[in-house]
Amino acid sequence: MSRDLWLKQLRIAGADTRSVEDVLTDDVPVDGLQHAGSALLRAERSESLVAIARSLIEALDERGWTGDAELIAELKHYADHTAADLIRLPVELDELGETLDQSAGTESFIDVVDGALWPAQLFDVDQGPADFDPASDRWQLVVGLGSKPAYEVIQRFVATIEQPDLASRLTDALAGSGTFRRFSTELSRHEGEYTRWHRFRDDARLGQARAWLADYGYQSNRQL
After folding, report:
1. What's the CA gap between 4 and 170, in Å, rounded?
2. How far is 75 from 214, CA to CA, in rounded Å?
3. Could you tell me the residue ranges of all domains in the chain?
4. Which helix (H) or strand (E) holds 47?
């Protein structure tokens, strides 16, 4: 089971400016930058958070994951107290990230009025919204990206493991069918790396969702 104390502290901080400052003043893990940026953006602006935002911008620029450029743009607007051109949409980034991870071609929809995300599974059993009309501008289609992006995230994670034996076993797990199951089974035997993996994966999902929204002219105003 994943026990990420840093993420727990960040979630407990919520939108409280002082609490967010306290968590982010210390070193922010490189695989938690999207989480950190989301927490900062939901808090009321302060001089301390502006300084932290500029530090995050530098770290994100160096890291360069999918969605990091979009988060940099949001943080610059925050730091400079300027408005973005993107439309603010109250959609949960983590939910959108999970939806994008679904099988290739699956069709989910975001209600752009209230930001509600309706997953493909509900449409499959005719339990979508009663007033759903795919031809209406109210509904933004979200198509699942399939396993390729998720597999690439796993590969990036394995490359960060400093234990040669574990890295080798995980690399072997990536060959053939059943990759995700074998990877999870092997990694679950190593609690520290297992916990770090969940933060790494979820941070990548947040970035994927942030980049996807920007491509369609949106940004989330519900960061977590």
Report:
1. 21
2. 14
3. 5-80
4. helix 47-63
**Token pair 């922010």 in the structure block, residue:** 28
Q: How far apart are CA 92 and CA 224, in angstroms?
A: 6
Return the ∠ at Cα 27 (arms to 183 and 166), rounded to 5°. Answer: 20
Query: Are the CB atoms for 67 and 211 separated by under 8 Å?
Result: yes
52-55 — which CB contacts under 8 Å span 24+ positions?
52/21, 52/24, 52/25, 53/78, 53/79, 54/79, 55/28
Tens-digit pLDDT profile for residues 93-146: 999 999 999 999 999 999 999 999 999 999 888 898 999 998 899 999 999 999
Is residue 222 predicted with pLDDT exceeding 80?
A: no
Please, which residues have CB within 8 angstroms of residue 50's CB and are 6 or more apart in sequence?
78, 79
Torsion of CA 5, 6, 8, 9, to 10 degrees: 120
Q: Does pTM top 0.90 for this prediction? A: yes
Length of the chain as a residue count: 224
Instruction: Please tell me the distance from the alpha carbon of residue 84 to that of residue 71, in angstroms, as a whole number.
Output: 12
Query: Residue 217 in contact with residue 89, Cβ under 8 Å?
Result: no
The pLDDT of residue 126 is 87
Q: What are phi and psi of 108, to 5 degrees?
A: -110, 170
184 phi and psi angles, rounded to 5 deg: -65, -40
Give the three-class secondary structure for 117.
strand
